[in-house]
Design brief:
Layout lengths: L2 H29 L13 E12 L7 E7 L2 E2 L3 E3 L4 E10 L2 E10 L2 E12 L3 E9 L4 E8 L1
Antiparallel strand pairs: 1-5, 1-9, 2-3, 2-4, 2-6, 6-7, 8-9
C-alpha cells in the first residue's frame, strides 16, 4: 500500500474508533501500559459512634453543646446535661484511617475536647474511651466494621 492509500485508510479508521470508544476511552487505552490492572483502593470501613455520655460538664453545671467530627463529616450539635447519654451519634465510611474528634460549643466559643487519631480501617469491636480536655469528660462508645 502506498502512502496516499495509508493516509486515506487512517482518515476513515480514526473517526470509527472515536465513535466506538469516545475520546476519553481512546486516551485511556493509549495511556495504559499493556498488561496492567487498576490498583485496588483498599478495604472500605465504617466508623460508628454508638453513644456519648457526659461524665463531667465542660460548663460547670450548665448544659454542654457537643458535636463530633468523624473524618470530615460533622454531626449535629446536641445538648447534654450531667450524666446524660445519647445514642446513635453518627457514622462515616472511610478507607485507610480516620480521626474522631469531640467539640464543645458555647456562645461562639468552640473547644476541641479530644481526638482519637488515625483509627485504622480494621474490624474493631465496641471500644469505650473517655475523651477529655481536663474539664469536660465524655464517655464515647464506638466501633469500626
Amino acid at each position: 500500500m502506498d502512502e496516499e492509500h495509508t493516509m486515506f485508510a487512517l482518515k476513515k479508521l480514526i473517526p470509527a474508533v472515536l465513535g466506538a470508544v469516545g475520546t476519553a476511552g481512546l486516551v485511556a487505552v493509549s495511556l495504559a501500559p499493556a498488561g496492567t490492572a487498576t490498583a485496588s483502593a483498599g478495604p472500605t470501613c465504617q466508623l460508628t459512634v454508638h453513644s456519648n455520655k457526659v461524665l463531667n460538664l465542660e460548663d460547670n453545671g450548665v448544659d454542654d453543646e457537643i458535636f463530633f467530627k468523624l473524618g470530615t463529616s460533622r454531626t449535629p450539635v446536641r445538648q447534654y446535661a450531667q450524666n446524660q447519654r445519647r445514642n446513635n451519634i453518627g457514622s462515616e465510611t472511610f478507607q485507610g484511617t480516620i480521626d474522631l474528634k469531640v467539640f464543645e460549643r458555647d456562645a461562639g466559643n468552640l473547644t476541641r475536647v479530644d481526638t482519637l487519631n488515625n483509627i485504622p480501617c480494621a474490624n474493631t469491636p465496641l471500644e469505650v474511651d473517655d475523651l477529655t480536655d481536663g474539664d469536660g469528660i465524655y464517655r464515647v462508645r464506638w466501633s469500626v466494621s
